[in-house]
Specification:
Blueprint lengths: L29 H5 L6 E7 L5 H10 L3 H13 L1 H4 L6 E4 L4 H7 L3 H6 L9 E2 L4 E3 L11 H8 L3 E3 L11 E9 L3 H12 L4 E9 L8
Parallel strand pairs: 1-7, 2-3, 2-6, 6-7
Antiparallel strand pairs: 4-5
Helix pairs in contact: 2-3
Length: 212
Amino acid sequence: MESDQLSNYECCQQCGLTLEVSELTEKRCRECITNPPYFDKTLCLDRYEGRLQSALHLLKYQRRLACAHGLAAAWNQLMSPSLHNVRADYLLPVPLSLEKLSSRGFNQSWELARRIDCDKHIYKNPHILKRHHHTDHQAKENRANRQIAIQNMFHINPQFQGQLESASVIVFDDVMTSGATLNEIARVLKDNGASHVINWVLLRTLYTVTRS
């Protein structure tokens, strides 16, 4: 996670949270070791509370699509060089429900994902992952409630059924908070044959987890 010049080893390689001193040797946080998520790795550009937050809010809530160009350019400048050799089969944005997509007019994760640089053999597709509609807003829910609310929220478009067998998949999201959404997506992808799931995330919140 490129945040305030933090080095990658200071963040959990699996979920992207900043590691405590006692966790540095393993390079994974205690939560990921104790309760491993379905996704295999997380790469983040910056923390949510950083300088890019306002641009993301303009994109999502004021429909300033020009901000997608700037945010993607920041990713391409800071992240793409180190990810140039990443090999994957698909790059999929976290989907919105049809109702939310109709209301907002666009999927911000796709607007970012389609502009980022990656290996030309990685197939970008916004139609493989689908999301059922959910009326409740989850931003302020605690981690446990998020995990419950998100269960069975995603599914694979029947047109692409069977195409993920043994595939390596990158999932792109604008913000990662508790990780519940990305974990549920990774579960669905692996249940449909994907062998490896990596999260590429624009902004990561410094979400507090209970560490005993």
